Amino acid sequence: MKTLSVFTTLLAVTAAKKCIVKDTSAPAADDVALNSEVEDVAGADDVAVPSDEEIVEVTGSLEDVEDSSVESAEETPKKKLPADFKWGAATAAYQVEGAWNEDGRGESVWDHFTHLYPKNVESGDRTNPDSTNGNVACDSYHKFDEDVKMMKIMKANHYRFSISWSRLFPDGEAKKVNGKWNVNEKGTQYYNMVIDTLLENEITPLATLYHWDLPYALHEKYGGWLDYRSQDDFAKYAEYCFETFGDRVKGWITINEPWVNCVSGYRLGPGKAPYRCTGEAPRKLQNDTTGLDLEGGCSYEIGPSQYYKGAEVLPANRAPQRLEDVWCSHNILIAHAKAVNVYRKKFQKKQKGLIGITIDGEAQIPWQDANTTPEELENNKKYANLAAEFRIGWYSDPPMVGDYPASVKQRMGKDMPVFTPEEKKLLKGSSSDFLGWNTYTAHWAEQVKNEDGTYVQPPTDDEASFETSKQDMWDDNCRGRGEGWSCIPPTLGSQAGSSWNTKYGPTIRVGLNWFADRYKGLIKNGIIITENGCAQPNYKVSRANDLVTKEYFESIGQPEYADTYDESIIEDESNIEGSIINDEYRIDWYAQYLENLRLAYAEDGVDVRGYMAWSLVDNFEWENGYETRFGMTYIDFYNDDERTRIPKKSLEFLGQWYLENVEQA
């Protein structure tokens, strides 16, 4: 296998060029909006796919790659991103729209299960019936003009939003009879308004077809993504969207983060709807429910499901089963490919748009400490790539090269679903127009050791299974987990306001290089960062004055990544004019990640075409409700029925960063 070592080199170069924010008070310049031209539309048959042996392994060594020179800004002006760079913010329908039962909208799994299990969502005021769901959220259904005003502050030329499947097709089934679709016309009117308003303001729409809000009717009918019929239902819904909105929408994302949708929704948790989690038995199915809180926990409500045509029909209202997340992932990837096939065959030539998938996943950094030997570090580099293949490649390889990574298939054994030859053909190159990546944090990775210091070995072919597939692998962004899945330091960067999220700027550069090398020559219109951002340290999750992490990075010669903060950075809901509006931590997050993105483009030659900050506004943060704020715009969800938008300093910072770091036409 071909090897390119980049991890440690990128960290060294990035450290030398780390961006420090000194002044964010500069006034924003006049609004700038750009529309990108459609480039090099490529169908699946246009893509040359490498063999497994040719897919690049990205590991890491400072010695193996020639270090790029670091010159001062006085000697050489820094290279800016191109004028057609896609710049904007992102949201998702269920998180911002509200109007959950207005104008004919059908119920989604998020509506149904947050109403049925409200205790699965955090709340600052459980007397407020809207505090644990997206019933009202940001009320963008009625206040979209206010959102556009926020986009203008950051100089957005693109806006990534998602379409609510159940707002268009309440029962999830899109049908066209005698030339007429069975669509909810009020839903169509809303998205026409959104698209037209964006274009009137010189902001290009980037539309996501599915951001986790499956129509509940399909979950009740056949178990949603656990049934193969979901593939064609999604493709028909997508066809309606292409036909109706494709004259104006030139950028389509089929699926957002299939890993989170499937793994968090069908195994882990209860965190993401439909709460099919295996960590505990559904409380409602217990023989004796006395004293049990039936408003929380794992769900059992589901329709009869068939993983693939001809498979056993699983009964309705069953406890969660092993491998549900694996089969959800399998079906959702095929659904993506079928939707892309519809677009390319029926619409792309005339509409001249681009289509791809957005996957998520942590860039993987080989673990090292002061005691790590050179041999151990080399081994950890291999495991960093292996962890990336499991976490990212599982979902990015099929739409790029037509199949799962060989390492995943080998280690999963008979538990791994198999694509048919026809499905492989559909999948191959189905995200060759562009690839979307949602990136937040990185993970360390290493091979697990036994108590005696010897390595845990990978599973043999006979041992291969879901349960044994990662028995020798460790990856996380902290060295241990405490109560409530909180991180035990050291952490890979400072602790942000979510337990899974730490601030580590090289994340984005390392990941972009991993994609660029693995899929060299396969992505015709580059990579788009479709989400990146953070919740600031808050009353729930923070780690001020983290000396353990500081001392760790000092011990390995990288003190610049200790990135500690004091208590003044922690958000205080009683004082929004403090660190909530003056969100210095988030500003520094964006400064570090964006500088690493620029370096990936300018120095590494990565074809990165866009950046969508998450998120435009504070919104419904899934299982965290309204208690965790990712937005660059403040909204008081408990006391302000008007949902007034108040821009934070980070929104102004991004507008200025765009003017200074992107070529202006």
Automatic annotation (TrEMBL):
Region (Disordered) residue spans: 453-473
SUPFAM superfamilies: (Trans)glycosidases
Pfam families: Glyco_hydro_1 (PF00232)
Molecular function via GO: beta-glucosidase activity
One annotated GO biological process: carbohydrate metabolic process
Keyword Nucleotide-binding: no
Gene3D superfamilies for this protein: Glycosidases (3.20.20.80)
Secretion signal span: 1-16
Record keywords: Glycosidase, Hydrolase, Signal
UniProt record similarity statement: Belongs to the glycosyl hydrolase 1 family.
Matching PANTHER family: GLYCOSYL HYDROLASE, LP05116P
Name this polypeptide is given: Beta-glucosidase
UniProt organism field: Piromyces finnis
